[in-house]
Amino acid sequence: MKAFAFSLLTLLSFAGTAAQAQTAPVAAASPAKKGTEMVQFKTSAVCDMCKARLEKSLAYEKGVQAATLDVPSKVLTVTYNPAKTSAEVLRTAVQKTGYDADNVTADARAYDRLPECCKKTTGTH
Ligand SMILES: [Cu+2]
Fold it and tell me: Could you tell me the distance, in angstroms and rounded to a whole number, from the CA of residue 122 to the centre of ligand 1?
């Protein structure tokens, strides 16, 4: 009987914790605004022209709220509305601008249209 009372108590307190966890605000865990997600791509950008080109190109994508490229690290940070676009779509947008995104290679035609100084062989400058 004692054991039964104990397990009932354990069960009750567990149920109480679970209910509490459910009512806790989910958004508190994420630094981004509600309805906003962030994704980062390692690109093949080499200079400020690449930065301007990529940021402009991503800004025209549906659902994108902000796009920022850090030239030294070549990392493009995009904040977007997940209801309107996805990380996959944005990665493709980077490729179509002529740059690698993570481990996917740039669209060849777009890459050919880049000025010489922006090609991968040039190196960061
Ligand atoms: Cu460039």
Answer: 9
Ligand 1 centroid from CA 104, angstroms = 19
Cross-strand bridge partners of residue 76: 41, 69
CB-based contacts of 104, cutoff 8 Å, min separation 6: 91, 95
- Please answer whether residues 98 and 114 qualify as being in contact, where contact means their C-beta atoms are separated by less than 8 angstroms: yes
Percent of the chain as helix, strand, coil, to the nearest 5: 50, 20, 35
Residue 38 sits at φ, ψ, to 5 deg, of: -125, 140
pLDDT digits (tens, 9 = 90+) for 41-51: 999 999 999 99
pLDDT at residue 26, as a whole number: 45
The Cα-based distances of 66 to 10, 56, 61, 121 in angstroms read 48, 10, 10, 28
Distance from the alpha carbon of residue 115 to the mean position of ligand 1, in angstroms: 7
| pTM score, whole prediction | 0.71
